[in-house]
Amino acid sequence: AYIVITFPLEVRPMMRDPQVLALLRKKARRLLRKRGYRMVFTRWHYFGEHGEKYHPHLNILCDGGWLPEEQLAELKDSIRRKLLPRSIAKGIGKDLEIQYRYSRSPKQIMHWIKYVTKASFRDITWDEPLANALYGFHNGCFAGTWDGSPKWKLTGTDKKFNALLKVREGIHPVSGKPIKWNKEPIPWALVEAQNPVDIGSGYYLLPPIRPPPSGRRQPTNLIELPDGDYRKHTNTV
Predict the structure, then answer these.
(1) What is the C-alpha to C-alpha distance for residues 145 and 169, in angstroms, rounded to an integer?
(2) Cα 189 to Cα 211: distance, rounded to the nearest angstrom
(3) Between 20 and 30 A from 219 (CA), which of 34, 162, 186, 231?
(4) Where are the alpha helices (DSSP H) in 67-172?
(5) What is this structure's pTM?
C-alpha cells in the first residue's frame, strides 16, 4: 500500500524543525505497526517539482491490501488523531489530507518506490535556511520485519538498479572502488549541469571526469647551424 499524508499550510512553520519531522514519521510508523502492518517505510518529500514553496508530505510504503470504505475511513481518522492534535485541527478549520492506494502490480509498486525515493529538495536556493536545518537528516526509515519471502524479484538486468545496489554497499558502481563521500552541500545547479543519471533513493551518477587536455607538441623553431656558418657566433667575448 502507498499512503501520502499532507499537512495544512497553517502548521508547516512548525515542520521546519527536523525533530518535529522525525517525531511525526515515528508516530506514523508506530501506529501502522500497532494496526498489524508488518513492513513500514516512511520518507518525507519537502517540495513540489519546481520548489515554489515548502510543501512537506509524508510518503509511506507498507504491506497491506484493499480496504472497504469503512475500514479506510477509520484508518485515516486514526492517522489524523495521531499526527495532528484535534485542538489544532479545530482551531484552523483544516485537517490532514490522506491518500491511500493499493496495487498488486509489480510495475506500479516499482513506480511508487522510485517516486518515493527520489530527491525532492534539489536546489539549496529554494530555501537555504531549511537546507541547513535538514543537513544530515536521515530521511528514509524502516520499521517492522522484512524477512518474508519475496513476492516478486527484479531480473537484475536493470543498470540503474545494479548501480544502486553497489552504492548501498559503499562501492562506486563504475570503478568498483570504495566511495569517499564529500559531506559538503553542492548546489543542485552544478550537479544538473553535468547531466546526472538518477539511480534512485536520491543518488545520482555523474559522468566521468575528463582528463586535462594533453596539448599538442609544437615543433621548435630553433635549428642548429652548421660549423662555419657566418650566422653562428660563439659565446666568447
Answers:
(1) 21
(2) 22
(3) 231
(4) 69-83, 86-92, 106-117, 128-134, 159-168
(5) 0.66
